[in-house]
Amino acid sequence: MRLSKLVGHRYKERPGEAVLDSHAFLLRGAYARQVANGIYSLLPPGLRVARKIEGIIREEMDRIGGQEVLMPVVMPRELWEESGRYDAVGSELLRFQDRTGHDMVLGMTHEEAVVHLCRHEINSYAQLPFMVYQIQTKFRDEPRSRGGLIRVREFTMKDAYSFHASQEDLERYYMECYRAYQRIFARVGLPEVVAVLSDTGMMGGKVAHEFILLTEAGEDTIVTCESCGYLANQEVATGRMQGYPEEPLPLEKVHTPDKKTIEEVAAFLGIEPRQTAKVVFYDTDEAGKLVVLLIRGDVEVNEMKLAKVIRAMPVPADEAKIAAAGSVAGFASPMGLDPKHCRIVVDQTIAGSGNLVCGANEHDYHFKNFNLARDLPGMDMVDVAQVREGDGCPQCSGALTLKRGVEVGNIFQLGIKYTEAMGMTFDDEAGNVRTPIMGCYGIGVGRLVSSIMEVRRDEYGPKWPLSVAPWQVHLNALRLNVEEVNTTAERLYTELQDAGVEVVYDDRDERPGVQFADADLIGIPIRLIVSERNLKNSQIEFKRRDTGESGVIPLEGAVQTVRDWIDVALAAINTTAEDISAS
């Protein structure tokens, strides 16, 4: 590729809308251009990176028996009604009508489509297991687009779906995909990606892992233990919170005028927030009852954990519903509430602490010395607390640490959620009709492009790994008006391409500073510089952005030297990938 012909304008100024460095380089280096909020067009360098990532994904999916298919972006309402998700999923699912007035959706995920595709193709246990995958455009009407391609509304994703006759077979294949994902991330230049336990969310199922790139640019919070290696998304993480048991004191009602918040009550009574118990009300559980959650005052509620307990998404209740239950917002207590009309949920942090301050269900009054076993006996304990920095690890005696990360992939054991709802069956060996068990495996291609750029960069631009770089070599010619420079650069350009090397040639008669600034923004791993000075010694200069090496090499044999560098680097990347997946 001649740089003079490459579509896309590179520039020095940092875009005002770019918070992340990767977002700034995405725009400055002419990788992508925003069309609307969370919607981008890819320019040639960005598309070349994305295509290389897709190629690696395809190789690894094929390696574990995947068969590539292509499903539609647009689906009829009826498919999503079959699974029950048409009404269950919120506004992030884009609904519209075609010109006949038929309700349609834009696919944000393809569980319904893949069951529809496969349910009439599979009828016998002899056809199981199998896995199909696609690399397809999806649309999620994301309200918080950010970070360039990190979080968008329209995106390209690899989603794979496996079907099994038994849970044991799903678990076996799940681990094959787990290892394939490790290889994929290592091969694209992100061997530091870690797998963490995660919530299954709208996908359903019982077991899920997210693959997280730890970086301060991330918006996911990951809970880790340096002592034992415990890893989990904060949505599902558990920890050991310190308890404060005390000998029970008599319950005492105290006047707390206009003191509603934990901070106000604690300050007024001269105590710490950990010595309080707060009540949080949510609309309804699966049975339609008002949810009354009791948790220690210094602890936040993890609503993803709570959703699993009440089997409904937690929605804060308004004051009218709280009053109808016999309580008072800001001065609430579960004591005295009718269990026929409300469901009382008690977090385990309450059981471990004594003599707490809680509401009295009376305006301007609280109780001192609330003790669970005495004042609210017979309650089951649950864990719905948000894990905090410094809490005890659930697996060892270490302390937990919170880190930021970007989710670059996920895998789910879906079970029969979709196959049962949509009537997919097969005949087993005994002739019995059974429902296949599903697994689901996703990777965001565009998110990987930005994620690699976020952690593989310097202050001047990205530092692409050779496995996914838009080109492998960037050829600079300084002073093209010098015939020897021009002739040598043109010859090198041709010979590199003939040797199978992907090369972009800066054939513009620009100053070295302009050429090098553009080279940094494009971020090619190997840079070759043809100059009049070095040609006098029959040499050319090189600079390795991937390794940091620089120097000169003989002009004679330069193409073979570069070819060897590329082969060695790619072999090392693949070896690392194999080592990681085998460990």
Structure description:
With 583 residues, this protein is an alpha+beta fold. It has 3 domains: 15-73 and 106-212 and 405-455, BirA Bifunctional Protein, domain 2 (2-Layer Sandwich); 252-382, YbaK/aminoacyl-tRNA synthetase-associated domain (YbaK protein); 473-582, Rossmann fold (3-Layer(aba) Sandwich), CATH 3.40.50. 29% of the residues lie in helices and 27% in strands. β24 (473-477), α14 and β25 form a beta-alpha-beta unit. α2 (44-63) crosses α13 (445-455). The longest helix is centred in the last third of the chain and has 25 residues, at 558-582. The protein starts with 20 loop residues before the first helix and ends with a helix. The model has no long low-confidence stretch (mean pLDDT 93).
Task: Give the DSSP E fraction (strand runs of 2 or more residues).
Answer: 25-35%
Form type: globular
Q: Cα-atom Rg, whole angstroms?
A: 29 Å
How many angstroms does the end-to-end distance come to?
Answer: 40 Å
Number of helices: 17
User: Could you give a short account of the major beta sheet?
Assistant: 9 strands, mixed
Low-confidence spans: pLDDT under 50, at least 5 residues? Answer: none
Q: Which CATH class of the largest domain is shown?
A: Alpha Beta
Tell me the structural class.
alpha+beta
